[in-house]
Design goal:
Distance between the termini of chain B: 33 Å
Mean pLDDT of chain A: 93
Number of domains of chain B: 4
Strand order of the largest sheet of chain B: 3-2-4-5-7-6-12
CATH superfamily of the largest domain in chain B: Thiamin diphosphate (ThDP)-binding fold, Pyr/PP domains
Mean pLDDT of chain B: 96
Shape of chain A: globular
Distance between the termini of chain A: 17 Å
CATH class of the largest domain in chain B: Alpha Beta
Oligomer: heterodimer
Number of strands of chain A: 13
Largest sheet of chain A: 8 strands, mixed
CATH architecture of the largest domain in chain B: 3-Layer(aba) Sandwich
Structural class of chain B: alpha/beta
Shape of chain B: globular
Strand content of chain B: 15-25%
Number of domains of chain A: 2
Number of helices of chain A: 12
Helix content of chain B: 25-40%
Low-confidence stretches of chain A: none
Order of helices and strands of chain A: HEEHEHHEEHHEHHEHEEEHEEHEH
Chain lengths: 339, 640
């Protein structure tokens, strides 16, 4: 069976695709459109890059010796201290600040980020300037296929690229680097991976139908899921804020997210998320040398403030991460047993 | 100039069956001829139309066969001889009018020609349209070769006029399209002036007495058929086997008898008047022999007719054994061939026939197979339908809601197959795609949620697509209707249709505007050029999601063969072998294996795609397909 057929059989047809976009733009057979990865024709290649990079393809058993937050050097709480990052960030604004700092430091010459809105929902976009980076600030809670844009750009030109990646996307990028099928120049463009914490992401098409029925949109200013006990999704339009109980929203999460064991983007250089109890700050997990160096330089430039991570928040983060790991691996086992 | 206009009376001219029929009608004084294109009948009207303006008579491509026959009937009611020609499906379309016209009767001679397609070589069904003679109590004539087709066409007009009844003339593909030398007769010197007698009434009721009148007509016809020169016997006075045959079954039977050397043992009863059967004449032929083989095209029509009258009279006729399609001495379906008749004769009479050399036969087959590999049906290079279905395929995939196409009849019927990316999931008869699509959409209230695209051609739309579109709009069956407007009735030979400013006899017809027709019915209308792949895909995708009201998308681009006749295409197309990725992950022969235009082929020695300069017409569409941009199109300098 061809690689694409296997990918369809194991991931796409069972509805497990999480719209990371890693398999898209490598060939004409897989396309990303309006939040969905679509296969338009069948390819007969026995071996294919699509199958090699898909994060939902289980390649090895989960290593239970890995710490709850994955491998890392240190954990901090941080926040941006300058505009526009202070304004445009979801919480502490650290992600955008670090991406732009990486550009200024020459670590990367371009970044693949995600738009806020746009035709077909939030989607991948290349950013090279301050304005372009700040336009992408804030959280989206939908699958947006942004790795397809990386694939497209990397084939056009080899250049050091930074990516803001969900855990599945960070895994895909890891697989891209490890695969013998991926062309060298292609993965050599992957220079910096800034990971995001994630519990699940929404399936764009059902979500957008939901918003339409509720009379929300099309332009959204900000999405937010405030900390418990709120249990709502807040959607800010230009002049109003709507709230929906998470019980109505969760059913629209992508099914594949339920099989994911990774909450903190364990394959990234540096992973960033909310800080429990303080919406003005971020939690930052520094994993690699590059991640450490970037944070240091950003701090040195006075762009971000780095402080100690409160231990109670850290242990809550570990608990949440373990819980997702346990849930995810149980579902994955269930699915494998079912086949 | 049409073959049928060449030559003086008395000249011997090589004519195909359809040309001979056309000539026969002209010699019989026909003044109103109507038809709808359909293989194998189309040449009849084509040839008459070529000479109609000079002769001052009327020839038209009607919007459908029912209208064709209705128009011809009007001419008959006005005292002017007329004919309507069609393939077997056309008889189905016209059947309601036929069965009523049979009751009302006609005035001047009116002949219905049905050209059937045994083996369904170019049809969606295999059907014997002779049933119409039994259903509607009409006289039926079957010519066996072109010369007879000419004389029967002429005779049919006279018979119809004498009886005051519609008459049926039946041909099949091989008769319509094979040629022999035919002697031309004279064309009439004068024409009748059409006039409708307002004291006359042409209606079907009261039905019972009219039905009885039809039966009396059939008795009269039978009496004439008893003496008809179209029926004859060849062979020994008493035979070991009698072949009762009609139409081109006659020539196959003669060929089989001659090749097997059975001329002294087998007699051939050749019937030209196959309904009503000349029963007394037939009874005399049956007397020659107790074993009978029926050879005819498609259904055991004559076979069952003869058996019925035999059963009625068997005590007088004695014990007979009948063979044919019913007992499977001959196959129950498929086209008749001389080989099949020979096999039947071998089985029944076991003549001394040396078998073919097995080894030679195997070698011959191997050679032929290598020269003529099996080939899939495909759209022409440059065909706009390939581009249209490419975009439909992509849009439906992107839409990802298990949408599908309800197909229809035309060249685009091939969208059932890989050449059209296997998009069409349903195909029946002309215009059925719209009715079926409407039915699916009416299931929405019960939970049906898949998008449906109805695809129809321009000619088919005018033929049968308007009533179901009206129905869909009225019932809120909100599908996307895609009309493939290639400016012709292409599959059958580029005949004009109501969307064009010309008719069968040349320019001067009024063109109906597809957009206005659809809009005035209440559909929204958009137009795209199918060669613009991105634009067309986006338009379809957008319309699939709109889902308010019936949406019509007209994909307008002339048929590739028509474009060729009008001066060809603008581009030279080339593949850059440096950029071509061939088999590799990232391409896997996308242009040749998936898009499948015959203008491109994959060179296995170099693992690259190449443009076949003989087949490629230069439409340039494939340049937008290649994921590597390896295919380029350059505007050709026509001076070269």
């Amino acid at each position: 069976m061809s690689a694409l057929k296997t990918l369809l059989k194991e991931v796409i047809e069972p509805g497990l695709c999480v719209a990371c976009g890693a398999c898209v733009s490598l060939c004409p057979y897989l396309v990303f459109r309006d939040g969905k990865v679509v296969c338009t024709d069948l390819c007969e290649c026995e071996q294919g890059r699509c199958y090699e990079v898909c994060p939902k393809v289980q390649t090895k058993k989960l290593d239970t010796r890995v710490p709850p937050l994955g491998h890392f050097q240190s954990v901090y709480r941080t926040r941006a201290t300058v505009d526009p990052w202070k304004q445009t960030g979801q919480y502490g604004g650290t992600v955008s600040a670090l991406i732009y700092c990486a550009m200024q430091e020459g670590i990367i010459s371009r970044a693949v980020l995600t738009t806020k809105n746009g035709v077909g929902g939030p989607h991948g976009v290349v950013a090279m300037t301050r304005e372009e980076v700040s336009a992408c600030g804030g959280s989206r809670y939908v699958g947006c296929g942004s790795l397809s844009v990386f694939n497209r750009e990397a084939q056009r030109s080899v250049a050091p690229t930074g990516l803001v990646a969900l855990p599945c996307q960070a895994m895909a990028l890891s697989k891209m680097r490890a695969s013998t099928l991926t062309h060298e120049e292609h993965s050599s463009s992957i220079s910096l991976i800034v990971g995001l914490f994630c519990t699940w992401a929404l399936d764009y098409r059902p979500f957008v139908r939901f918003l339409k029925r509720e009379g929300v949109g099309p332009e959204i200013r900000k999405y937010d899921i405030p900390p418990p006990p709120a249990n709502v999704l807040q959607i800010a339009e230009s002049d109003s804020i709507r709230e929906f109980p998470l019980d109505r929203i969760r059913p629209m999460a992508m099914e594949g997210c339920g099989l994911c064991p990774d909450m903190t983007a364990e394959q990234a250089d540096i992973s960033i998320g909310a800080l429990e109890g303080d919406v003005g700050w971020n939690t930052v997990i520094v994993r690699t040398e590059l991640g450490r160096e970037l944070l240091e330089r950003a701090s040195g430039r006075g762009v971000v403030e780095v402080a100690e991570m409160p231990s109670s928040s850290l242990s809550h983060l570990e608990e949440a991460s373990v819980a997702k790991r346990v849930r995810g691996s149980a579902r994955q086992r269930e699915r494998l047993n079912r086949d | 100039m049409s073959e049928i206009a060449k030559g003086q009376p008395g000249a011997r001219v090589l004519l195909m069956g359809n040309e001979a029929i056309a000539r026969g009608f002209l010699e019989g004084g026909v003044q109103f001829c109507a038809a709808y294109p359909g293989n194998p009948s189309s040449e009849i009207l084509e040839n008459i139309a070529a000479v109609a303006p000079d002769l001052g008579i009327w020839a038209e491509w009607s919007v459908n066969e029912k209208v064709a026959l209705e128009g011809a009937a009007a001419a008959s009611f006005a005292g002017v001889r007329s004919m309507a020609a069609m393939k077997q499906n056309g008889v189905n379309v016209a059947l309601d009018f036929i069965t009523n016209l049979a009751l009302s009767g006609v005035k001047a001679g009116l002949v219905l020609v049905t050209c059937d397609d045994p083996g369904a070589i170019s049809s969606t069904n295999e059907e014997d349209a002779r049933f119409v003679a039994r259903v509607a109590d009409l006289p039926l004539l079957e010519p066996a070769f072109p010369e007879e087709a000419l004389s029967m066409a002429k005779y049919a007009l006279e018979l119809s006029e004498t009886l005051g009844s519609l008459c049926v003339l039946r041909s099949v593909s091989r008769l319509s399209h094979s040629r022999e030398a035919v002697t031309l007769g004279t064309l009439p010197e004068t024409k009748r002036i059409p006039e409708f007698d307002v004291s006359s009434l042409w209606k079907t009721f009261p039905v019972a007495p009219n039905h009885q009148r039809m039966h009396r007509n059939m008795d009269r016809a039978e009496a004439w058929f008893e003496e008809s020169a179209f029926n004859w016997y060849e062979g020994p006075d008493r035979a070991e086997l009698l072949i009762i045959t009609c139409g081109n079954g006659y020539v196959y039977s003669r060929e089989a008898v001659e090749l097997l050397g059975l001329g002294k043992r087998v007699g051939v009863v050749k019937l030209g008047t196959t309904w009503p059967l000349p029963r007394q004449w037939l009874a005399r032929q049956l007397d020659r022999c107790d074993r009978i083989l029926f050879v005819e095209e498609v259904d055991p029509f004559v076979e069952e007719g003869v058996k019925a009258f035999y059963a009625q009279n068997c005590s007088e006729l004695g014990i007979k054994k009948f063979h044919g399609r019913v007992d499977r001495t001959l196959p129950k379906d498929g086209e008749m061939k001389p080989d099949l008749v020979m096999l039947a004769l071998k089985r029944l009479l076991n003549p001394d026939l040396p078998p073919r050399d097995r080894e030679y036969a195997d070698r011959a087959k191997a050679v032929v197979d290598a020269m003529a590999p099996p080939r899939a049906l495909g759209f022409c290079p440059g065909c706009p339908h390939r581009a249209s279905f490419w975009s439909i395929k992509n849009a439906l995939k992107l839409d990802a809601r298990d949408g599908f196409v309800s197909g229809d009849i035309g060249c685009y019927t091939l969208s059932l197959f890989p050449t059209g990316f296997s998009q069409s999931k349903l195909t029946h008869c002309m215009g059925s795609g719209l009715g079926v699509a409407g039915g699916f959409m009416k299931l929405r209230s019960q939970g049906f949620d898949q998008p449906v695209i109805s695809v129809v051609g321009d000619s088919t739309f005018f033929h049968a697509g308007i009533p179901p579109l009206v129905d869909a709009i009225h019932h809120g069956a909100e599908y996307l209707l895609i009309i493939l407007d290639n400016g012709a009735t292409a599959m059958t030979g580029f005949q004009p249709h109501p969307g064009l400013e010309k008719g069968a006899m040349g320019p001067g017809a009024r063109a109906l505007d597809l957009e206005s027709v659809c809009r005035s019915l209440g559909a929204s209308v958009a137009v795209q050029d199918p060669y613009d792949l991105d634009g067309t895909r986006e338009a379809i995708y957008r319309l699939l999601n709109e889902e308010q009201g019936v949406r019509v998308l007209i994909l307008r681009r002339a048929c590739a063969l028509v474009q060729r006749k009008q001066g060809g295409f603008p581009y030279t197309v080339q593949v850059d072998p440096q950029k071509c990725m061939g088999d590799d992950c990232g391409c896997n022969r996308y242009c040749t294996r998936v898009f499948r235009c015959p203008g491109l082929y994959f060179d296995r020695t170099t693992s690259k795609s190449i443009v076949d300069e003989i087949i490629c017409v230069g439409c340039g569409v494939c340049a937008d397909i290649c994921p590597q941009g390896a295919i380029s199109r350059e505007v050709m300098n026509h001076a070269e």
